[in-house]
Amino acid sequence: MALKTNLYDVSKCTACRGCIIACKDWNQLPAVIEPFKGNYCTHEDTNGDTFTIMRFMEYEEDPADDVKWHFLKYQCMHCLDPACMKVCPRHAYTKTDWGATFHDPEKCVGCQYCTYACPFHIPKYRKREDKITKCTLCVERVEAGLTPACTRTCPTGALSFGDRHELLDYAEERVKFLRANGFPNATIYGKLELGGLNKLYILTDTPDKFGLPIDPKVSSTIPAWKDWIQPYVGWLIPLALAGSAFSFVTTRILAGKHEEHAEGGHE
Amino acid sequence: MQLIPEYREDLPRVERFNFVARMTHWGHTVTFILCLLTGLVLFLNSGADWLAAIFGGYNGAGLVHRIAAVTLTIFLVIFVIFDFKGIINWVKDLLRFGKDDIIFVMKFPLEFLGFPVKMPPQTRFNGGEKGNSMLTPTCVILLVLSGYIMWFPTIFPAGLVRISYPIHDIAMVLATFMVCMHGYLGSFHPGSGESFWGMWKGTVREDWAKHHHAIWYEETYADKTDADSDAE
Amino acid sequence: MSPSFGRGAMTNHVVDLKNTDYALIMGSNAAENHPITMKWLTKARLERGAKIIHVDPRFTRTSQIADLYAPLRSGTDIAFLGGMIKYIFDNKRYHKEYVVNYTDASFIVKEGFDFHDGLFSGYDPAKGQYDNSSWDYEVDAEGKFITDPTLEHPRCVFQLMKKHYSRYDIDSVCNITGTPKNKYLQVLDMFTQSSAPNKIGNIMYAMGTTQHTVGTQNVRSYAVIQLLLGNMGRPGGGVNALRGENNVQGSTDQALLFHIIPGYITSPSNSPAHKTLDAFLAKETPKTGFKVNQPKWVVSLLKAWYGDAATPANDFAYHYLPKRDVNKNYSHIAMFEAMHRGEIDGLFIWGGNPVVGGPHANKEQEAMCNLKWLVAADLWLTESADFWTYQAWERPASETKVKKRTPADIKTEVFFLPAAAVYEKEGTAANTGRWVQYRGKAAEPVGDSRPDLWFIYEIGKRIQAAYANSKDPKDEPIKNMTWGPYGSDHEPDVVEVGLEMNGYYVDDPRKPVPGFPKLAADGSTACGNWIYCGQMTTKANGDLDYKPMWRDNKDNSKTGLGLYSNWAWCWPVNRRVLYNRCSVQPDGVTPWPGDEKRQLIGWALDKWVGDDVPDFNTSLAPDAPGGINPFIMRPEGKGCLFAAKGSTKDGPFPEHYEPWESPFPNLMSKQDKNPAVKVWEPDKQATPDKYPIIGTTYRVVEHWQTGALTRNLPWLAELMPDMFVEMSEQLAKIKGIRNGDKVIITTIRGDVEAVACVTKRFKPFVVGGRTVHQIGTVWHFGFKGYAKGDPANRLTPHIGDANTMIPEYKAWLCDVRRA
Predict the structure, then answer these.
(1) What is the CATH number of the domain that holds B194?
(2) Which of C16, C62, C190, C516 could lock onto C31 through a cystine, CB 3.0 to 4.6 A?
(3) For chain B, how many structural domains are there in total?
(4) Which of residues 129-148 of A touch B (CB under 8 A)?
């Protein structure tokens, strides 16, 4: 099945944050009211009850020119090769055939390995249930033929949902247009990053201006751990057990032959 | 066939481990094994559902793991507080690692399999035990530290949390390897099985001590017995 | 806008924004407060390459979306726009043919009109008012306007205007507004390019424009510019008032104002000229323009209100109508001033919240203590319903400006009507683009809450019952008032109310009047609101067909203009773009060069046809008299660059005056403040030595108005949990304030506490060579709900615009310090 994905075009986003409310509404997430700390974004990060946030970043290159106020919807990127899925010891993560990284709370034991494996630090721990939560790409909506709740509510069309190939084609065109129209650094995010994300961004400037890693990487400890340490190093334990068993037998066989080696414990 | 050497009260015995050392040893044994079994549940990537089922499922296993881990930590603290002198002596003994220990370790595989080997005289802990004494506590301390970091990840830097996962696993594997060997040698192995009683009852047969830990015996009991006999 | 075009409504509609080439957003943070407009503007940008220009004191979410942003100091819009008018004249950036044919530019103004040093002719300093009789056109013996199509006559509107704005050169303007010169020039150049016949620009504004002592004149400036650029009455153009609330348009249509009765008809007063119906109609009905039909509307209205009691013999019960005191002002500020003096006993607050939203909220809260009774209808207990609680009188520690009260001091009896939420009732709302849209009921009301309509209906019924046996003639208006039943007597039916609003034939009350041209002055029709006439029709089976319920989601425009004429219904008679006669050249056939796709109507041999409903006499040929008079609601028939007598109180041309509280004298003339405003509290005018910082208030997208609705919703409270104040990094440095600190904002009227949001998006202004700082606060907060904070309106002044009395929320003086 073709990959289906969200495209988020920041050049059209007005940061109305309707997507956050739509997300909370659809997923029935309670409010997490924290004090205003001087930024419109009252969430420092996603949390167990907030799957998507809107970042507001002020940026000024030249004081004589306009300040830039970058908005960025931030949520699970649904990586095509997700690190969360790799590290999850409970196989709570699955990849749907159309590209959503789905997390099954039934299986989750709240170990939070995924949180720290994720290059975007997205899966979040929900204490009251001892479970991890994150954006589901509205799996149940999409599989019922609808678009994700955030996309459905977006008034400016900054969010769209559809076939990843088609959206990529559109994004290429759009970035070309933006580059020619006052945004020389416009770029697509999510096409190649981490081998492809199943969330695409059209950015009007370089990703770092939006607080996104330019070249996101899964920490090298993750493959070392999951690909080498767990599968191979663990064999030392059966080895010890087998050796002991072998010794248990040989010592007792050999004991008969070397009676003269009288040691403590032997008659 | 005999599993463990018989406990011989009729023969003269010397004290090898005091009460605190023994209590914390066995405390650690129980909690470590609990942690191990419950931890394997995840280490095996949910490949052993039956193991989790013993603890009432994965969440139960997690709970047992945490309780056991805290208890293990408490034993660690008790050991440090109540037998600080013992630790110092232990460390001192480890620092005596030398030529004899290396020879012991090199010859050990034969001993392990039951061939008769002439070992150089050993201090309180022989070369192999010294290795175990260095590796296992290091691994346990790493397990404890990385474990708490994983338990409360939000208060630690993300990089530290991330590195804790493989560390916890490596330390677990090494510790378990050592524990298996230690457990076997310290009980079922005909040569060193007597040391089981050293940790269980606190005393070992004097002749065994002389044979296996000649230097220790000399330093600790030889003068004393001489003095005793003098007094007699 | 009424003085310029004849109607005071958004000329185009929201979907139409997609047809624009240049959008000037000024005095509005549309992305924040009208998010849906951005849907269509971004579409215009994507599909037409439209440019969005944003002019605002602060870099906002709208600025980020805009192609060009220019800052200006709060309250200097007219200077900014005056400079644009001069630029248009200097660079011949006006749309000549449009200006000559569709505006009053060629009209000759009477001798005697003058302007000198900030004052127009006819000012009476003692009264603080203008006698505007000299602001008039010259007419010939037949009463026809004398014109000069060459626009050369020294007293023609065009030349007078050119002269008036000659003082607004770029340097003077930037010196007043604090706008960087390069930015200003870019704005001027970009927006005035819409004067090309094939380019159309629109102006979108909101409360940032109107909430000034010169609010009306700010809007007039837009109107003038749009007329000069030829952007009125065309798709993608217009002067678009973005309404602050989803049904504000509806509320003014239904005359929730003191100076009008439904359908924007002047409300009768006790002046001798309004003594009888005939006198009233003679006085208020112009001789020319479409408004000559006013008697039909008034009589039909009286028939709708008083039914059989309204007969030709008794002047259709005109004497029943309450007459306002012609010398009295009944606006919000005036009402609370009177309440403060103890002149008002009772108050109904219906979905309002003056303790949070009223200007000088401290005073309004104090005023409410003088009430004997208060009825508040809302979803939750609002701050105003709970104005008597301890919480209400808690102030920041330093507050000494208000006498502290306790519930024991306050004798007001408060009644609370639990209102049903919008999804718990059916009804219609008129959106900013005049679309009257029906909304069904999605859920049952919670508990014992009821729709507003039910409350009103029941109150009316019970009042009538209370007076049923009265013999007193003065109680007749109540006894004889038509009051339903609307459908079942138990639950009023909105369609039945819609029918009364639409109008019906008195001899056949189930037969809707098809449109206001069919209304009659002889009492044969009854109509509750003539502009809504035509919203009701009958289906083939004879049932009523309520057009606001129409949901045909297909664009009926052949050229893709997004008219959606069969989606809901809009007044007047479903015209989606007002003054659409302007979308075609004067000959009525030729589209504007290069703009064939945006012609809305055209003359087809004997009548006007087109995708939109012609805003014109459909049978009036282009070459007939008045055939090129697109602004049918104006007596002139033209778009008015010059606001002739009576249409404004403070001048026929917009002129820059400083806000009532300003750190600067007027650099344009000796007249600092708008001379025609009524000053209520002369002692509460701050001086810049004590209060050197300019303050303004605004909204955020996460909350709605006084927040009564949104601050009680946890999810929205989560997004904007606290009252905050935005300030520049420079000001924060001077005051030792860090981002996130608690600060106290203080004005002569009150203090509030807020969290500092130190931002690069606010910059100090350089005005008259001096640096001045501006701060901005959000006014959504109050002491109830999940998100709490001090109401920003404790800071704002009790003064309003000269014409509309809308309070000057947007520019006042304050100081700020760390809490």
Answers:
(1) 1.20.950.20
(2) C62
(3) 1
(4) 130
